[in-house]
Amino acid sequence: MGHLLEVQNLKVTFALRFGDLTAIDDVSFTLDRKEKLGLVGESGAGKSVTGFSIINLISKPGFISEGKVIFEGRELQSLSDKDIRSVRGDRISMIFQDPMMTLNPVLTIGTQMIETVRAHKKVSKKEATKIALEKLNKVYIPSPEKRLKQYPHECSGGMRQRIVIAIALLTDPSLIIADEPTTALDVTIQAGIMDLLIELCDTEDMGLILITHDLAVVSQVTEKIAVMYAGKIIETGPTDLIVTKPRHPYTKGLIKSLPGTHQPGEALKQIPGMMPTLTDIPKGCAFHPRCEIHESICTTEIPKLQRTGENGQLAACHLLEKTVDELNGAPSTPEQDN
Amino acid sequence: MQNDKQLLAVNNLVKHFDISGGLLDQLAFEKMKIVRKRTVVKALNDISLEINAGETLGVVGESGCGKSTLARTVLCLYRPNAGEILYKGDRIDELSSKELLPFRTKMQMIFQDPYASLNPRMTVARTLEEPVLFHNRTLTSPEVQDKVASVMEQVGVDPTWANRYPHEFSGGQRQRISIARALMVDPEFVVADEPVSALDVSIQAQILNLLMEAQQNRGLTYMLITHDLSVVQYFATRVAVLYLGMLCEEATTAELFEFPLHPYTQALLAAIPKLGKKGAKHIKMKGEVPTPINLPPGCVFHGRCAFANERCEREIPSLQKQGSRIIACHGVEEGRL
Questions:
Q1: Is residue B1 within 8 Å of residue B89, measured between CB atoms?
Q2: CA–CA distance, A59 with A53 (Å, rounded to integer)
Q3: A123: distance to nearest CA of chain B, Å?
Q4: Where along chain A do its domains lie?
Q5: pLDDT of the residue at A259
Q6: Which of A315, B274, B290, B328 is the most exposed place for a label (fewest CB within 10 A)?
Q7: What CATH number does the domain located at A5-222 have?
Q8: What is each CA distance from B334 to A157, B242, B337, in whole angstroms?
Q9: What is the tens place of the pLDDT at every residue in A136-186?
Q10: Interface ipTM
Q11: Residue numbers in chain B where pLDDT is lower than 70
Q12: Distance (Å) from the C-alpha of residue A191 to the closest C-alpha of chain B?
């Protein structure tokens, strides 16, 4: 058996009136059970589209125009609508950003959970309730019997997100895609939810794809990181390497612009400009207009992901030799921790 | 007051919101009798703070702890129920709206969401002119236009775009424009309510640098409301930690981040995600934040505090001074913590 999930050269195109728009291009990665991958990038980088395209949730006018998604040995994008439903929500679950939007406000939590179980398994209501209670226990919801009878508005934000996670677990999936699961929550609640996700991956033997804009969160949770910019993965590798020795100028810029990596009062290193819109991606390397070190080759040729020399780290930059030296000059690890 | 550097002082500020609605909503049937019940959100309870000229006071806490209410009450956008607000020694909370006008030019606010805080039907130029024309009617229109151009330049927005509408700008640029709007009347004191939390990481750095530059060039004093502790650590000179409308701890940034004393501050600091600290231990807090409608008796934090004892359940801790630090905790006071 190969990997749990293998994404190969995935390209998602949106066919719009004024022409085709490439939302993500040449995205490849693999994930095993118990492994956690972080997809990081700013808004518009294509993180969520990547997540959605894995379970074929891209709706028209968007479609997967190239590449493959192989999950547990099956090619997902060639499955019929009916067959994909035995994977989506069953083998692969998704957790979204805002739990209040994900939960139905007019149904009790119990109804929603039992409905989900019975949509995927032929079980009696009683058995479905048992499964629901078991999963609520797994996410540490106190007095789950009581919660089953309550409506989403009766729970706090953190509690709701725990319930959403419990719902995702109902069908014992082997992969969870979490799209900004804690962005709407407070830091103290976020810490709890992240601890829970880490624990569940281990105990339930699941893979996790964590989509977020927050590098610090990803670095605490995942083993692997893929950094996305303008629809492409521009750097990927083991989390420790990406965080301590980033090689792509964009990753470096992102890490250096975090307030936590600076002495108070010192000006933050900033990346000039902003992410290009998909209709207007610069020629060559999409990052070159914002890149401090770009050369003429960057404006014409699209860089490919290439080995950086470090174990398993890949970066898409023409000027990798230049990014080593610069790195030693400026510390990219936080100093004033503890 | 004793401190002549003091720009703003807040003493025993209380702000409650009555959310009970109309008379019919308030009536309830209880024990065979009709009773009238009021529901009051106790957003701020007995808050005292001081802000010195030129410094940045960071106010942190979880959602619902009263950060934004504090910001608006300090600017007299909400009138406090009790307590006093002093601006350079003058009491401003009892002034009429008209009497407040001269203070309004000195105190400005930057809001969280630049998509909501700019009027979509006004061009940038009109948005920026409005506060000047309102507060300073003696300026001629070329003078106002010069001012608009110079402030736009200072915040890094091309002045030739003055006739565009907000939707033509990106989130980061809109936030620059709302900062420009606050700077138009040359304020001394700026309250920034979550100024960067709606923005992307690389844009956040740009805006924080801009705020810092404006502070250096204009000698501004900031009150920075945020839930992002790493922004506070980087930006603020002093930090006040709020929990359920109460002040838990206030100290200089360095002190607070190095030796947090209050158990809530400790838990909050432990929860900040830090780069490359895999498997960092978080302090688990019991339970959830109670509602500000039914405040727990005693210390508001006792239900979630690992060190709470019988006294914490009964008695509200008072603010104690410890050097430059102010803290409200029985445990610290008794030397248990």
A1: yes
A2: 9
A3: 34
A4: 5-222, 244-329
A5: 81
A6: B290
A7: 3.40.50.300
A8: 35, 21, 8
A9: 999 988 889 999 999 998 888 888 999 999 999 999 999 999 998 988 788
A10: 0.73
A11: 1-3, 277-280
A12: 6
